[in-house]
Write a structure and sequence with these properties.
This protein is of the alpha+beta class. It has helices at about 15-20, 25-30, 120-140; strands at about 1-10, 35-40, 45-55, 60-70, 75-80, 85-95, 100-110.
């Protein structure tokens, strides 16, 4: 299992960043490895999202249930089902810094169904997070 927690300042407002986070259908346009996304709204604040991604040379499918609290600037998720993951849970938290900037916190706990050496997991999870946050920032800026 791998855990990561990263905090980064971005040059986009909290509301714009949040709007990008919850636009799940657009992820294949800017999230590395995302191939296909199918979104089902459960309620105004809950979405079930089926992902098809390419990771570690594998095509991975999984479904997450996302819970959104736009006013608080939070979006969390839990794993519903997967062909490759045992666990995928996490949270985005946004803090308004005024103007066109906010603080982004990304937390994740992930575990695969196969044994993956910890150095690979850490490189995948922790190493890719800063660039992933930058891709969300770039998308939010338009």
């Amino acid at each position: 299992m791998a855990n990561a927690d990263i905090v980064q300042k971005v040059g986009v407002s909290k509301d714009r960043f949040m709007a990008t986070l919850v636009d799940y259908a657009a992820y294949p346009e800017f999230v590395e490895g995302a191939k296909k996304v199918d979104v089902s709204k459960v309620s105004d604040t809950v979405s079930r999202v089926a992902y098809q991604i390419s990771m570690m040379g594998q095509d991975i499918q999984y479904t997450l249930e996302h819970t959104e609290d736009r006013a608080a600037g939070e979006m969390s998720w839990i794993l519903i089902e997967s062909n490759f993951l045992k666990k995928n849970a996490g949270k985005w938290s946004l803090k308004d810094l005024g103007g066109d900037s906010c603080e982004v916190r990304y937390e994740i706990e992930i575990e695969f169904t196969i044994s993956v050496p910890s150095f690979i997991l850490n490189r995948l999870v922790k190493g890719s997070l800063p660039s992933m946050i930058k891709s969300f920032e770039k998308q939010a800026k338009g």
